[in-house]
Design a protein that fits this description.
By secondary structure, the protein is an alpha/beta fold. The protein has one domain: Rossmann fold. It is 33% helix and 18% strand. It has an 8-stranded mixed beta sheet, with helices on both faces. Strands 5-9-8 form a 3-stranded antiparallel beta sheet. The protein is globular. The two termini are 18 Å apart. The chain binds fructose -6-phosphate (F6R). Fructose -6-phosphate binds next to loops.
Length: 255
């Protein structure tokens, strides 16, 4: 049985385990797409959403959800990695989701990490999201340091899609996807906090004990740029989905 409560106006669902959390998030995304087959989804990479994408792929295979008319925008991309680089977020999405469902690839967008004019390319990405009608549902993970997308601590409330420098901690955490830490790009393109807050609905998924402090700061700490995920408390339609280890520091607050 899921446990559900509201903390500082954020709907929080604690599932039985990480797989239950993946099913819950996949269910929210599938409901969104069933309700509006032309939904615009905001998608995330990283380890956390992989199980959710797997559930969506299985649902799509069973004919329970149809992605043909969906448009998607990913949160971020490393600067310097082309879409065909195996560690690029574009390659990750093609492999983990897009290549296994019926979304037309031309309706999927990931920032261009190899654009010759990064600033112009970021401005274009914002315009493309606007032209698509805005994001209906944005899926997020959370960094150990509270980052959302690659909005590292200190990212401002009004930030938009832009080039950022990754923190040493983020480089270190993401080194597991590369052969060695020095292969991790130092810069990335990320949607900004304001870009994310423009989404009509936000679903944040966090699993594992390593995320417990970040989850607590998001839900119960001060709303400050030093903890970017806390800025989500300025949005009126956020659902936080957790497994028990990620929820440990907030379930204590409930008791
Ligand atoms: C991914 C992203 C990041 C991750 C976060 C957690 O597109 O924007 O903010 O959501 O770093 O990563 P994992 O899931 O690997 O722990």
């Amino acid at each position: 049985m899921n446990q559900e409560f509201t903390l500082n106006a954020m709907r929080t669902i604690v599932c039985q385990d990480a797989q239950g959390a993946a099913k819950t998030v996949a269910g929210l995304i599938a409901d969104q797409v069933r309700q509006n087959p032309k939904s615009v989804l905001g998608l995330a990479t990283g380890g956390t959403p992989v199980a959710t994408y797997q559930v969506l792929i299985e649902m799509a295979r069973r004919g329970e959800v149809d992605f043909r008319q969906v448009t998607s925008f990913n949160l971020d991309e490393y600067i310097g990695l082309a879409g065909d680089h195996p560690q690029s977020f574009r390659a990750f999405m093609d492999e983990q989701l897009f290549g296994q469902i019926n979304i037309p690839i031309e309706q999927t967008f990931v920032p261009d990490g190899c654009a010759s004019d990064i600033d112009a390319s970021c401005a274009r990405y914002e315009a493309m999201i606007r032209d698509a009608g805005g994001i209906d549902m944005q899926l997020l993970g959370i960094g150990h340091n509270g980052h959302i997308a690659f909005n590292e601590p200190g990212s401002e409330f009004d930030s938009r899609t832009r080039q950022v420098e990754l923190t040493a901690e983020t480089i270190d955490k993401n080194a597991r996807f590369f052969d060695s830490p020095d292969q991790v790009p130092r810069h990335a393109i990320t949607m900004g906090i304001a870009t994310i807050l423009d989404a009509r609905q936000i679903v944040l998924l966090a699993t594992g004990a390593g995320k417990a402090d970040a989850v607590r700061n998001m839900l119960a700490g001060p709303v400050v740029a030093a903890h970017p995920a806390s800025l989500l408390r300025n949005h009126s339609h956020v659902t936080v989905v957790l497994d028990p280890p990620a929820a440990a520091a907030v379930t204590e607050l409930q008791q």
